[in-house]
Amino acid sequence: MRKFLKKSTYVVALILVFTAVVSCEEDFTDIGSNIISNTKFSTSSMLVDVEMSNSPVAMVKSDNLSAEPGQYLLGVHASDDYEKIEASIISQLSINSDLQIIDNENVYISDTLVVTTIDTVFLKLPYQATLNDEGTGYSLDSIIGDKSKAFNLNVYETSTYLSELNPSDPSKTNSYNSNDLFEKTGSELNISKDFAFIPKATDTAVVIKRWLSDNTLSSVDTVTYTSSSNSTIPVPFALVPLKEDKIKELFLDKYESSDFETQSAFNNYFRGLILEATGNEGSLVSLDFSVTAKPSIEIYYTNSVVAGGAIIDTIQKNDSFLLSGIRASTYKMEDKVYPINDEVKLQGAAGSEATINIFGADNDGNGLADKIEELREDNLLINDASLTVYINQSADTTATPYQLFLYKSNEDIKPVYSHVKDLFTEGSAVFGGLLERDSDGKQEKYTFRITDYISDILSGETDYSPSLRLKVVNPTDLQVISDTVFNNFSWNPKAVTLFNQSAVDESKKIELKISYSEEKN
Predict the structure, then answer these.
(1) Residue-level pLDDT at 38
(2) Cis ω on the peptide bond leading into residue 493 (within 30° of 0)?
(3) Which of 92, 205, 284, 314 would give a disulfide with 272, using CB separation of 3.0 to 4.6 Å?
(4) How far apart are CA 371 and CA 70, in angstroms?
């Protein structure tokens, strides 16, 4: 009996199945990639009806224990076409060993007094930025939304212990989800409640005023940060002033206590920061925790050595506490119900995906879609199969994702999520999903090559035909794929509106195009 042939086995399979044909047809050839043509076979193509619907996402894993995203979202993005997102960050802090307010205290004589004055304390958040062509400055990137309007930022201490091990089963690694709650301790640590956060490329320096114990200004320093030790161009960063008295109480006053003896002890004492973004407008900023200039709390203070009522010496100090260790993100998403029409909304983070049903219903209840049974009867040789989705260019396209991702989903089996075969057999470049533009340069569509996947189903090699899922993805998440299991992470917040099978314009409907060869009658 003849069967469907996968393109990866064309040469061998054709020799085995069509030996009689080859013996009398000397001009049997392959045309292009996998298109079979000779006097016994004709080539053609067909469109298979495909259904696509909205699939809201309640939450996603959002910690660096499950997978280190490197980048974390902070801010607010609101669009009439999509769910509003308020993205916040939770992070432990790292400490240096042997923290001391006063160094070499024994060098001072017995009648001296060392008075510590806090100069300034702030949260430093370096932006992702690109150096301009002249090499004189940076422009901000990885920001979505209206950068001219502020969102509210408040910084809190959390009382939630961030654990690397699962509290329910310490033999397993812990994980945190985007809708998890992290308890706050006390009031906000920032000086001004609801700090108005507006990202600016011109914010590249902070002026540090050094004060003596008698409230005399000792010196003024300008502090900048660079992308590497070889660079002299300051990178832009956000600066959030923190309450000096509170930071002194929480940090400096505890330096030589048991709470600062080890990182583990500190993690239990000061369990982490919550950077909470709220509001109805503003922008969503992606912060990179892997670069040289890292997010941190910066404490600047001056030690005045006093003897006989006079200041005889000053020591200026700076301690940094990196936002390091266990980190997680929370995505507060607007509860938005999309109408059932000719559109599907895709939005990253904890927004929405799409569910795709390629072969339709199983009306006879035999566990196989009726369309699959019908196509199997046609004994076609599958040359190519591609799935294409078209963008509604009338919707909000200001933050259209560069890439979408297609995967298999079945709640009834383990693993629930798995990769489409073509990702392995052909590689991500051929598998596709990249944004394509039309002749006018407008964002037009995304296409996936799923030839092996379709061939396996229609050849009868497998009857496993679960729903496919379509989601926003970040390209860096797909650089290393070594398993058939798909780990469904999502921190890319971009969004796009796609047409489904109900599009009024026939040319914009989601389509599965199958190119095939069949024996002539």
Answers:
(1) 57
(2) no
(3) 92
(4) 44
Contact 62, 491 (CB under 8 A): yes
Residue 513 CA to residue 492 CA, distance in Å, equals 29
In the structure encoding, which two tokens stand for residue 286, read together? 């992606």
**Spatial separation of the C-alpha atoms in residues 486 and 113, rounded to whole Å:** 62
Mean pLDDT (whole number) for 512-518: 93
Average pLDDT, the chain: 89
DSSP strand pairing (467-472 vs 165-166):
unpaired
Chain centroid to CA 240: how far? Answer: 24
**Residues in Cβ contact with 66 at an 8 Å cutoff, skipping those fewer than 6 apart:** 173, 175, 487, 489
* Residue 105 pLDDT: 59
Average pLDDT over residues 128-147: 92
70 and 476 Cβ atoms separated by less than 8 Å = yes
User: For the segment 89-123, what is each residue's pLDDT rounded down to a tens digit?
Assistant: 999 999 998 898 887 655 666 678 889 999 999 99
How far is residue 141's CA from residue 199's CA, in Å, rounded to a whole number? Answer: 10
Tokens of 119: 């100069």
Q: Provide, rounded to the nearest whole percent, the portion of the chain with pLDDT above 70.
A: 90
Task: Give 149's contacts (C-beta < 8 A, 6+ positions apart).
Answer: 198, 281, 282, 283
Residue in the structure block whose two tokens are 């596709």:
432
Burial-class residue 492 by CB neighbours within 10 Å (0-12, 13-18, 19+). buried
How many Cα atoms are found within 13 Å in the side-chain-facing hemisphere of 314?
17
What is the CA angle 508-514-520, rounded to 5?
135
Q: What are the φ/ψ torsions at residue 14 (nearest 5 degrees)?
A: -65, -35
Spacing of C-alpha 114 from chain mean position: 48
Instruction: Report whether pLDDT(81) > 70.
Output: yes
Cis, peptide link before residue 295, omega less than 30° from 0: no
Measured CA to CA, the distance from residue 136 to residue 410 in angstroms comes to: 52
Going by C-alpha positions, the residue among 293, 305, 299 that lies closest to residue 319 is 299
Dihedral angle sign, alpha carbons of residues 471, 332, 203, 315: negative
pLDDT value, residue 20: 36
Q: Above 90 in pLDDT, residue 327?
A: yes
245-273: burial string, b at 16+ Cβ within 10 Å, e else: ebbbebbbebeeeebbeebeebbeebbbb
Q: Single out the residue of 420, 438, 517 nearest to residue 38, CA to CA.
A: 517
On whether the CB atoms of residues 244 and 120 are closer than 8 A, the answer is yes
DSSP state at residue 510: -
Q: Which residues contact 24 (CB under 8 A, 6 or more apart)?
A: none
Band the pLDDT of 29: cuts 50, 70, 90. very low
